[in-house]
Amino acid sequence: ANLVIHSADAKPTEQECIDGVVALQAVYDSQAYSRSRESEYPSIGDQLDMIYHNGDGGATFQAAIKAVKDKYPK
After folding, report:
1. In this model, does residue 7 exceed pLDDT 80?
2. What is the mean pLDDT of the segment spanning 46-57?
3. How far apart are the first and last CA of the chain?
4. pTM of the predicted model as reported, rounded to 2 decimal places
5. Does residue 1 carry a pLDDT above 60?
6. Chain-centroid distance, C-alpha 15
7. What angle separates helix 44-53 from helix 59-71, to the nearest 10 degrees?
8. Distance CA 38, CA 17 (A)
């Protein structure tokens, strides 16, 4: 989207406002997978515990992260 810069005194047109909202919504919508993943990933502490305590070279951690990424692909 093209961003139009106005002087401090100028106001955007109604169409520029509509176009701006549409552009912002498109960016927000394109990141839905990221918001969904974030809420389902284990906490950082749990992730570190999976890596350190399971003794499987991080396989448990990798499987947990992959499951969320597979559920919410880019």
Report:
1. no
2. 91
3. 21
4. 0.65
5. no
6. 28
7. 140
8. 30
Query: Region 30-34: what's the mean pLDDT?
Result: 95
| C-alpha pair distances (Å), 3 with each of 12, 16, 17, 30 | 11, 9, 11, 19
Segment holding 62, helix H or strand E:
helix 59-71
* Integer angstrom CA distances of residue 58 from 31, 42, 46, 63, 67: 27, 14, 12, 9, 14
Query: Which residues, other chains included, contact 33 with Cβ-Cβ below 8 Å and sequence gap of 6+?
Result: 72, 73, 74
CB 72 within 8 A of CB 30: no
Query: d(Cα 43, Cα 68) in Å, to the nearest integer?
Result: 13
List the structure tokens of 64: 């947990």
